[in-house]
Design brief:
By secondary structure, the chain is mainly α. The protein has helices spanning about 5-15, 25-45, 45-50, 55-65, 70-75, 85-105, 105-110, 125-145; strands at about 115-120, 125.
Length: about 150
Amino acid sequence: MDITPQTKKLIVAIQALKPQYTDLASTVFIDFYCQCKQGCDYLFPGGIKESVRLIDILNWFLECVDKGEPIPLIQLMWQDIVGPTLSEYQEDEQIEKRLLRAFQSDLHHVLATWDKATLPSGGVRLILRDLLNDIHKLEQVHASGVST
């Protein structure tokens, strides 16, 4: 099944967060989140797909990192056939390979400090909280159909 136009727009908006979140955990999570949204379009019927929450995707991500590989649900999602073109399919496959390498790396050590970063001023930035808040806001905008 093709990715819905709504999901495609959401993914573009979520990917645009990467310049604000350059740490490894955040960039990998952004890619993982987008793959999950595509996988939900592929695997789940409408009502189920819409019941998947950001916290669910975060938990799946943490499970994959902890396990060092995609959990079975994510493996099923990754069996999707994304896009009508070969290049879109190949790009999707490359992202999944990068995610797999990240799960097999020392990403779990990076997650230990994903919650905050010390700023040069001595203050603290709550990275994970900020990222989740930004994703949540984009989900709300795209769910309502309002353009950003």
